[in-house]
Amino acid sequence: MDIERKSIEISEICRVEGHAAVTVNFENGVIADVQLNVFEGARFFERIVLGHMYDEIPHITSRVCAICSTGHVVAAIKSIEGIFGFVPASRDLLHRELMHLGMIIESHATHICALALPDFLNVGDLMTLASQHPAEFEIWKQLRSLGSTIQTIVGGRPFHPVNLHVGGLSSYPDKEQLVEMGKLLDQNQENAMNLYRLLAGLNVAFGQGVAPVYSALIPAQDGYGYFGEEIRTSTGFQANVDEYRHYLNEKVVRYSHAKQSTFDGQPFMVGSLARLAMFAERLRPTALALYEKSPLAGKSHNTILNNLAQAIELVEAIDRSKVIIETLLAASPGGSNSKFIHQAPLLEKRAGAKTGAVECPRGTLYHFYELDLSGKVVAADMITPSAQNTARIESDIRQLVAGLKEEQADSIQAKLETLVRAYDPCNTCATHMVQVVYK
Amino acid sequence: MSVAKVLPTISVEGLTGCAGELLVILENLDQLLPYVRIKSFPFAQSRNEDGPVDITFVEGSVSQNHDLEKLTKIRANSRWLVAVGNCATTGCLQKASCQQCTAKSMMQAVYGNDSTLSFLPAQPLEHYVKVDVSLSGCPINATQFLAVTASLLREQLPYITSKPVCLECKMKENPCVLIEKNAPCLGPITAAGCGALCPSVGAACYGCWGVCDEPQIEAMKIILSEKGYDVDEIYSRLKAFGAPEHLFERMDKKAV
Questions:
Q1: How far is CA A182 from the centre of its chain?
Q2: How does pLDDT run across A288-321, given as a tens digit for each residue?
Q3: Which residues contact A247 (CB under 8 A, 6 or more apart)?
């Protein structure tokens, strides 16, 4: 029997981090196969860290990804501090959180404005965006500058921070710098609200997806947050992140440089949409009000809404950052203007293994390390949000093209790209890995 | 500016890396927009063109055949090829990992024996093609990037030196973390340009910009030994960000 084959191929998805392609194969007019092929070169980070000292690890792993480098740094620090049984001072934890929020602000603003928005405004290049939509371009400039200023003041540079270490910070911002960040945050509240309004007003007529299994860290603090020790899924499953190998089933797929994860055999979704689906009630009043009047509160599972979810998180991140800065200013009301150089605490090295996890802009990031007595890494594993989302992206694509006739195949390309982009996939992250190295 | 004026063209391409340089360029692009036309920048826009271009900035190392094919095409089309960031200029961490184990073992570890996926041990651009300007950094310094671009737009090759981090650190009058705090600071052998970031916040430089011109790597090893660091640890710190192997050969010979 003759099988008639046809395929849709998007050889490179633009406006995402790293390199990925999509292939949809039809046989006799029916979809046979959907593949998201991440073809960024393999990067072997789990191999790179072996044999290195514990204090080098955050700096090495930050290079997995620029835009979420702070997340990789914090995840590595949490794992190693966990092994040593070290609990940082509250001042260090607050600075760490502020740094993380700086990353959330910069990453979300860049994804929404520069990567996702051009689809909805119908512009194909940046110059057109800058010249025809100067207001949106300006919002992006200001918001990403806010995020990068916070990360530069707290971490030493806009990404790949030099000031965050196992054990705490090596120096702290002075009063003037705290005040400067506070002012910038005030100035950007309206930008974040405008961005939300802009996205909420867009007509995004994509088919309603089936509800995915959402997964996110339970914020350790009472409020909405990005750090925690346990995950929860929308199916009610709950576990300590140390158990991740039991609940995340990561496998290598033949056609891609990124591994894929499944939950109970089902694709799942991590990221802003997942966090809000489970923990929206913890938002501060401003962001909560936005959430409640958005389609998200109506339990809409449309993937495109991840963009809107990021906008809500932007508003929340600005609010929360302001509270942190007020707390830090209140803690040292005299506020010495000279930079206090902190002597890194003498950590008591211990052998052991632990998982550190954080919510990155794109979802839960896991770092696992095993150290020997001298403090050197003997085993490492990293599971990135984008790798966790891959299976779900494929199932989403399958659904979008399901009702499609062959002759419509050509017109679906742009829509497919928009869909994949909504996940904010980070392929540089997804291809960091070599196999899990067990001792 | 007259509408008829033909602006010089630039392209920004990524091979295998963390997209850090793409991000730095994206975030500073508004400063370039009045002076150039962007021909291709797949990270940032979907309407991209092939063909001849005045300047192409390339990030990342060559880590697979796909990268190599792309680079060869870029070289053929570009008047100036600028390697941006340490993955492109030295291979950085990615090359360091390839120096530690064989290509075959990595290939098998990741994909199994019968994989059809391509894999090349990570190499900087210069390993395969002529590079006109090498701009180090992990990530690159935005001011340096704009200066290099301005220089090329004026038809001049930029002047780039790589003096040690210590030079910038002294100019900032930082206390020396190596001598005074016994921290394993690699500033003496690391290329400056970052503004001595780590020592300025009281931390040890970990060498992320790669080695400086004529690095005194033997002396670095002696100082770290005197500070109580064992030889294995010294090597692991020095090699993390991809210092070239031949430096270590020299160091080993002198140690005998």
A1: 24
A2: 999 999 988 877 778 888 999 999 999 999 999 9
A3: A231, A237, A239, A263
Reference B46, options A121, A345, A42; nearest CA is A121
Query: What is the three-class DSSP state of B185?
Result: coil
H-run or E-run covering A136 = helix A134-155
Q: Select from A38, A80, A76, A39 the least CA-distant residue to A58.
A: A76
Decide if B100 contacts A47 (C-beta within 8 A).
Answer: yes
Please compute Rg for chain B using Cα positions: 20
- In sequence order, the 6+-apart residues with CB closer than 8 A to the CB of B21 are B14, B57, B59, B84, B85, B88, B137, B139, B140
Residues in A touching B233 (Cβ below 8 Å): 53, 376
The amino acid that residue A91 corresponds to is: R
Residue contact A170–B194, C-beta within 8 A: no
Nearest to A41 among B20, B64, B139 (CB): B64
Q: How open is the CA angle A369-A158-A129, to the nearest 5 degrees? A: 120
Contacts of B143 (CB under 8 A, 6+ apart): none
Closest CA to A321 of A287, A280, A277: A287
Cα–Cα nearest to A149, from A129, A170, A126, A179: A179
CA distances from A401 to A6, A430, B246 (A): 13, 25, 54
Measured CA to CA, the distance from residue A140 to residue A192 in angstroms comes to: 9
In angstroms, how far is the first alpha carbon of chain B from the final one?
65
- Rounded-to-integer distance, Cα B178 and Cα B18, Å: 29
What are B84-124's pLDDT values in tens digits?
A: 999 999 888 887 766 655 666 665 555 555 555 567 888 99
What value of ipTM does the predicted structure carry? Answer: 0.90
Residues of chain A positioned with their CB less than 8 A from the CB of B231? none
Of B183, B210, B102, B22, nearest to A159 (Cα)? Answer: B22
Residue A21 β-bridge partners: A37
CA atoms of A229 and A220, how far apart (whole Å): 7
| Cα A257 from Cα A253, distance rounded (Å) | 8
Q: Answer yes or no: do A158 and B27 touch at CB < 8 A.
A: yes
DSSP category for residue A409: G
CB-CB: which of A51, A118, A156 is closest to B236? A51
pTM, full prediction: 0.91
Q: Which two structure tokens, joined as six digits, stand for B160? A: 């780039």
Per DSSP, which regions of B98-231 are E strands? 133-135
With H, G, I as helix, E, B as strand and everything else as coil, classify residue A352.
strand
**Residues of chain A contacting residue B94, judged by C-beta atoms under 8 Å apart:** 43-44, 48
